Amino acid sequence: xxxxxxxxxxxxxxxxxxxxxxxxxxxxxxxxxxxxxxxxxxxxxxxxxxxxxxxxxxxxxxxxxxxxxxxxxxxxxxxxxxxxxxxxxxxxxxxxxxxxxxxxxxxxxxxxxxxxxxxxxxxxxxxxxxxxxxxxxxxxxxxxxxxxxxxxxxxxxxxxxxxxxxxxxxxxxxx
Length: 175
What we know:
By secondary structure, the chain is an alpha+beta fold. 30% of the residues lie in helices and 25% in strands. It has a domain at 13-133: Aminopeptidase (3-Layer(aba) Sandwich). The two termini are 18 Å apart.
């Protein structure tokens, strides 16, 4: 089974793996190149909150140094209803580690929040991760003030796993 997410969709949302070229375009601020490569309409604002140069550099590093990283990195979230629209980003922080743990993340642009898209993204990522026997646990981190994110994680069955550095809290979902 391949780890590529090329066709990962629930009918409403499609997850498109970020390529090196796309990540480099993000770093250069060339967002029109991203929209063109994804064949999507321009979102009302880009990028999502908390997506910054550090995150793009991280994912470029992962693609360069981890041969098995394809499909286990950053992705673009495209809403396929009516006109294909870029609504956020999602993916895995790194490929699964030696203990079978993988971390997911997701960000939705403000105009598209409270429409169930983050829940769909997280569910697709969890389903993809658990399709691999080597994945034993999926984790996610958030901030205590992001109540909607905490609600999403608990709705999907994640359990609180404690506080990490800088006030970040973790949630865990075991197979």
